[in-house]
Structures are given as structure tokens and as C-alpha cells.
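On clarity, I found the account of how folds are encoded harder to follow than it need be. Since the whole study asks how a given chain folds, the encoding of that fold should be made plain. For illustration, here is how one protein appears when written out as sequence plus C-alpha cells:
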Amino acid sequence: MHEYLNGDEAGTIRRLSRRIKLMWSVRFIIYTQDLGNRYLQKHSLGVYLERVIYMDIREMRTQLGDTQSEFSARYGIPFRTVQNWEAGVRKPPEYVSALLEDRIREDLVNRRSCVLPKYDPKKPDLPKRSDFVGAVPWLKAVRDCLGENVVFALDEALMCQGSFTGHSDEYIIWIYGNDSAARYNGVVVLGNGISSYNVQEKDGLFYTNFMRTVSDALANESILDMQGITEALSKYYYANGESFSELFVAPEYQERFEQLANDAIYYYDE
């Protein structure tokens, strides 16, 4: 499949494939993405699937605000390859550009800053966590208010995954969805679009997968109570042979992730 690619480009494809957790051929990646998009569209989530608009490599890099060296480190692409692509010496294969663009759009969403909403007596309240036995019934009630196409994120995603029980006085609700969801008190909309690669479904609820949840937590740490993600990382570590090797984070979060991972290892010893 890579017979017309040089060694750097072939290595880039392998690294990008690992980063998005898919080990199949690039043709199959495109095929499964199409299936995933059609699946979410069938379940009224199509509005949140971002339409791919082609960007060249330089445009992708400048949107992130990265230097060529930073861009190279972020995505595991040899520096020389980035230079050659931008200078037009070589052109990246279309499927490499597609993989990169999907990942970059996700990273741009992760960089979105937001503030915690203040209580507004003019807005309606969502169902209270304390009125329900278990997180799932409560989240279903919240979903029924916000709409079937909401994707839960952060602490709510961890509750869907069963890796965090939440708090009885839970107020903040983290989601991907339409900005209109913020008409309710306590709703934080992290973004209007999210790739189908990062969405899972269980018990009729849609939520971000664990790796995306970790990335979102690191991106929003300044306004997030990190207890939930620390507890979830601890459970992940011991459930996966005392290892975090299958988790990948952006370079700017790597140092903080290592600190958080260390806290998670000893979480239940405290």
C-alpha cells in the first residue's frame, strides 16, 4: 500500500493511525469513518459531524499556532517532511491530509476556552442528581431535556462509562451539542461538533470515549474539578495491566498528564 511513499511518509501514516486508535489500513479507516458518520446521522447526530473542508498543511499548522517544529512534534511527523510538504517539494497523499485534518479539528475544539456558567434564576433548571438512584437514570432525564442528539463530555462521559459515580449535588453538565442547550442552568457546551471516532453509545446515551475525555479534561483543567478524571485514570491504570500506554495526549499536555497519571496511580492509597 505504501510502495509509492518514502520512508518518512509511510511512518507518518503509521503514527497517525496509532494516534486515532485504528490499526487497519487507511482505506478501511475511511470506510469505517463513513459508516460511523451514517450511524450518527441515523441517530440525529448528523448536525454535530463537522464537514471536512480541505486545508493545506501550512493552513492546518497556522490554525493551531504551531511552528513547523511544534507541529512535527505534535503529530509525530518528521520535521523535514513538514518542510517539504509546505514548500511543495512533495505533496502528502490525500488520506494523510484527511487524517491530519480530522485530528487538527479535534485539537482546535480542545483548545476552546470557556467559563463556568453562573446561576441564572431566569433559566430553567435541569433534573437534580440527588433525585435519582444512579447516574444513568439522571443522565437520561437530562438528555430528555437537552435533546436526543446531545453528546455528554468530561464528568458526565465518565459516568456513562461507569468509571466515575459523580456527586449527589452535581450542577455543571458538560456536553457537545447545540449552543441552545445553554438555555438551561449549569450547561457548558464544549463544542458544536465532534468526530464520530470519539463518540460511544451505551444505555441510549452518547458520550465521548475515554481518550477524548482525558484530552478535554487537560484542556479545561483551569475550570474543571479533576477528581473525576483522576479517579477514572486510576481505574483505567489497574484495569489495563498497570499501564497508560494506550493513551495519547497532545504534546502541550504531556507533562501535566504525567503528573496526573502519577496522582491516579496512588489515588486509592490516599
In short: The beta strands are 151-152, 173-176, 187-191, 199-202, 205-208.
